[in-house]
Design goal:
By secondary structure, the chain is α/β, with parallel strands linked by helices. It folds into two domains: 121 residues, Rossmann fold; 94 residues, Orthogonal Bundle (Arc Repressor Mutant, subunit A). It has eight helices and eleven strands. The strands form three sheets. A five-stranded parallel beta sheet has the order 2-1-3-4-5, sandwiched between helices. A four-stranded antiparallel beta sheet has the order 6-7-8-9, with helices on one face. The radius of gyration is 20 Å and the shape is elongated. The model has no long low-confidence stretch (mean pLDDT 84).
Length: 234
């Protein structure tokens, strides 16, 4: 289970950045997290998208080609006064302008940012704003398997499963992408990070560790797709 609207539908996030590759990267990451995404690359398109899409939160670049993020915020707030906004700002633009923004209850990250930080701050903003159904926060569920990202507890069919820190991170990545085939390279990058010096067979080793704990005596959920990678599905 991810953060959802009270009716159970996905939370909506509007991503606004004139650098299309940054907007695409953010959109892809947030879709992985279960959000519904709309993109805009100018201030005027952002204002129009906010009116039509009715987002639960906005990721908004401060510098846009037509008018700046503060003007986008001012125009958006006339129609959606309570939508939380997470600003993206250049490191040298922090100063007084951002002090004024954060006083309004919103938040900012400076470029270059980590995707994890953007996700964490967005989740916190939406919880605070009441957009999210908070009781569903940070618990992933696939079939009869549940993983609590806060307490690090894992259960299969109600039975508690003890995992090491690395096994937990691997399972979390699989559960955030159910039914999606993940290559060894993707898993290495996400779980062991780019600077990991080992070989791809570390993935095979940890998949086998996980299988012994998750799939023991149960219908298997972790499947090998020969030549492609691994997929988790109920």
């Amino acid at each position: 289970m991810e953060l959802t609207r009270p009716d159970g539908s996905p939370l909506r996030v509007l991503v606004v950045d004139d650098e299309v590759n940054i907007a695409e990267l953010l959109a892809m990451t947030l879709r992985y997290e279960g959000f519904e995404i709309r993109q805009a690359h100018t201030g005027s398109k952002a204002v129009a998208a906010a009116r039509e899409f009715r987002p639960d939160a906005v990721v908004l670049d401060m510098m846009l080609p037509d008018f700046d993020g503060l003007e986008v915020l001012r125009r958006m707030r006339s129609t959606t006064p309570r939508t939380p906004v997470l600003f993206l700002t250049a490191r040298d633009a922090v100063g007084d302008r951002i002090a004024g923004l954060t006083a309004g209850g919103d938040d900012y990250v400076t470029k270059p940012f980590s995707l994890e930080e953007v996700v964490a701050r967005l989740r916190a903003l939406m919880r605070r704003s009441g957009a999210a159904n908070a009781q569903l926060a940070n618990v992933l569920t696939v079939g009869d398997l549940t993983l609590d990202e806060d307490s690090h507890e894992v259960f299969r069919d109600g039975e508690s499963i003890n995992l090491t820190a690395t096994e937990f991170e691997l399972l979390r990545f699989l559960m955030r992408n159910p039914r999606r085939v993940l290559s060894k390279a993707q898993i290495l990058d996400r779980v062991w990070s780019y600077d990991f010096g080992g070989q791809a067979n570390v993935v095979e080793i940890y998949i086998s560790y996980l299988r012994k704990k998750i799939d023991a005596g149960q219908d298997p959920m972790i499947h090998t797709m020969r030549g492609a990678g691994y997929v988790l599905k109920p």
